[in-house]
Specification:
Blueprint: H1 3-28, E1 44-47, H2 52-56, H3 59-65, E2 74-79, H4 83-89, E3 97-100, H5 105-122, E4 126-129, H6 135-143, E5 148-152, E6 168-170, H7 178-188, H8 217-230, E7 237-242, H9 258-271, E8 275-280, H10 286-296, E9 301-303, H11 310-319, E10 322-326, H12 329-333, E11 340-345, H13 350-353, E12 360-364, H14 393-417
Parallel strand pairs: 1-2, 1-4, 2-3, 4-5, 5-6, 7-8, 7-10, 8-9, 10-11, 11-12
Helix pairs in contact: 1-6, 3-7, 8-11, 9-10, 9-14
């Protein structure tokens, strides 16, 4: 199912459903019952359907939620494509992941209903909606049976309408990094609802990842074998270009043109001795990335689209020197490894979505019209020409050469200090 279809459903069906649900919620408040805040939650549901990158920066929020309920009593609702990453991050037991498939409208609806039945059977009594302004997640939180429901609320039109379905209503703060905003939502679950939206809580500075992916020996050996089969030598400088072709169907304004990636690959191979370029991508990108490889037309540039699982992709990152990508999930995945990552921002702001890490290098023009994607407009834009991503390949190549020079110098210093 296309993202555009999900957006239309969220708007056309979500708005009237949220309005009708709001009428029922307000009517139910007239009935005598104990407030949700007076009861300590026993089972918690975290909801973050989309945005793989957001799962990476979610760790501080999950630490806060771990103080509310035990790990075994924490459940997570995600889209099925997010499941492998969520299992790898190990926030909760894999059996507690509730995945919803999105490959068709029928499967989406069936999985959604099955997820609701499971949540009600589990006795979920606290739902934390980590989607900033999605209507379907607010409705799901309500229908899950949770008496404590946490999420962003529009208040004075400060965001898309999604009714009055939450017990703990949080103001979205566009001056916080996404990691801090997610942590704020988690912290709101620990407060009495009458205290909100004011919060006696200062989010910690957006922290670099504390957890890094250590490849298993068999994973490392498999990737080394595949690299050798592709012609990559043990002393070659491996540079990855993530053209993010399938992502262009989701948010096309985030895409750096394929022609730029092709030109950058040629510049890399001309300017950096012993460089080898791999073009990465998902299973849906195989044909398009193969065409990009052909456009580059050089022996030391190969497509690896669709060649790796999530764990193998992170192992590949650990073998590489630099990854170049637009603002997308792989930019965040890379922060869990030792690779330097150059991230091209345009229609979204690095103030909120910058990957967190010591080896992150952001290119952002900062035009007056950027960012045009926000949580307030549902990440939609009237723009049809993303001049915000008019970043010359030569500029990116210059940064790559500086990174490679620093890495080579650090390697030489390490080898010099090595005894014997």
């Amino acid at each position: 199912m296309k993202v555009s279809t999900m957006r239309r459903l969220d708007s056309w069906i979500g708005v009237p459903l949220c309005w009708a649900a709001t009428v029922l919620v307000r009517a139910s408040r007239l009935l005598p019952k104990r407030a949700a805040s007076e009861e300590s939650p026993r089972r918690l549901l975290a909801i973050k359907l989309s945005e793989l990158g957001a799962l990476i920066v979610l760790r501080p929020a999950m630490r806060v939620l771990s103080g509310l309920v035990a790990r075994d009593d924490t459940f997570f609702l995600v889209f099925a494509e997010s499941r492998p990453l969520l299992e790898l991050l190990d926030y909760i037991p894999p059996r507690n992941i509730i995945a919803i498939r999105t490959d068709s409208l029928g499967r989406f609806l069936r999985d959604l209903l099955a997820a609701l039945r499971r949540c009600r059977a589990l006795g979920i009594d606290c739902a934390v909606d980590l989607e900033f302004f999605s209507r379907v997640t607010a409705l799901f939180a309500l229908l899950s049976g949770a008496r404590r429901r946490v999420g962003c609320h529009a208040y004075f039109g400060e965001g898309p309408y999604r009714g009055d379905l939450l017990t703990h209503r949080v103001k979205f703060n566009p001056h916080l990094h996404a990691a801090q905003m997610l942590e704020t939502l988690a912290a709101a679950a620990t407060l009495p609802p009458r205290d909100l939206p004011r919060m006696p809580f200062v989010p910690a500075p957006a922290e670099n990842p504390r957890w890094f992916y250590a490849s298993a020996p068999e994973e490392s050996s498999k990737i080394e074998t595949k690299l050798a089969e592709s012609g990559v030598g043990s002393r070659d400088i491996l540079i990855l270009l993530n053209a993010n072709i399938s992502d262009s169907e989701l948010l096309p304004l985030r895409k750096w043109p394929d022609s730029n990636y092709a030109e950058l690959a040629r510049l890399i191979l001309a300017d950096i001795p012993r460089a080898f370029v791999l073009l990465t991508g998902g299973a849906n990108d195989v044909a398009a990335v193969a065409a990009l490889e052909k456009k580059v037309g050089l022996e030391r540039c190969r497509s690896w689209a669709g060649e790796t699982s999530m764990r193998e992709l992170l192992t590949l990152y650990n073998k590489a020197s630099v990854l170049v990508t637009n603002d997308s999930g792989p930019a965040h995945f890379a922060t869990l490894t030792g690779v330097d990552v150059v991230v091209l921002f345009g229609p979204e702001t690095p103030r909120i979505w910058r990957p967190l890490g010591d080896k992150v290098h952001v290119l952002y023009r900062g035009l007056a019209c950027s960012p045009c994607f926000t949580v307030y407009n549902g990440r939609q834009s009237a723009c049809r020409r993303n001049i915000c991503l008019d970043i010359p390949p030569a500029e990116v190549n210059q940064i790559l050469k500086q990174i490679i020079e620093r890495r080579l110098l650090a390697r030489q210093e390490t080898e010099t200090r090595r005894p014997g």
